[in-house]
Design goal:
Layout: H1 3-26, H2 49-60, E1 82-86, H3 92-96, E2 104-111, E3 117-126, E4 131-136, E5 140-147, E6 150-155, E7 168-171, H4 177-190, E8 196-198, H5 203-211, E9 217-223, H6 228-240, E10 244-247, E11 259-264, H7 269-272
Parallel strand pairs: 7-8, 7-9
Antiparallel strand pairs: 1-2, 2-3, 3-4, 4-5, 5-6, 9-11, 10-11
Helix pairs in contact: 1-2, 5-6
Amino acid sequence: MDLQQLTLEAARVAQDVGKHAFQAQANPSSMVEAHIPDVPGEPPVLPVNERLVPFIENRLTYLDRFNGFWHDRPEHCQPGERYWCVGRIDGAINFVRDMSEWTVTISLFEIDEHGGANPILGIVHAPALELTYLAAQGKGAIRIWRTPFGDKRQKIIPTTRASLEGSVISYGMSYVPSESKRALHVVAALAGKPADIKRVGPVSLDMCRVADGTYDAYFEPHLHSWDIPAVSAGTVVVREAQGQVSRWDGGDIRWREANDVVASNGLLIDQLRPYLR
């Protein structure tokens, strides 16, 4: 199966599973055990994740040959190997608080000739918004959304704004207070330059909204290893839409550790980066 067809099939898996997750959010009895801990820095507890991830992984095993899943990959992988990366619900607090901005994410990593891992396929599906972003390496990125007249598909590209003045920037915050302060320090320094600074989340959806031109840029400090599924899926969408994704210092994302992530249209990053130091 070629990569473009594989992306479409993986998107159908995300959409099917998203229906069940959306039903769980809407069902009060399903949300009884879901809660936000009182301890600062502790992530929300979503029992639905224990069903969602195994279900997606099982469905993916029927699509095409692959070498395993990202969470159980060997320390040293061989060139050409591929690993599916399935995330828990991205935007857990939004999910618990009955907001619409949360996603199901799927990505596919391929090992290059140097043993490095690169995401080559990305799916970001927002069930409550009836919105899906999908991208495959070398094939571009598209957005699918449901309307009263049926599904609409559109190729997406970022904005062409080259200045912070008049821009719309999004940012993310960690569950950990000390990490959140880093984001807020950047916001305070930026205040008055962009036309607006948004805080909605989650990371995968914010990145896709850079890809489709809703935002001009997005940044978030200290995205953890458990954020890799969401970041990798969003990265493929941004890059295939011809945007840019990197660490705050300009380096490549490191897929085995925490990262300070910035995504942009590629034109205003030089003006934004000094605020990220």
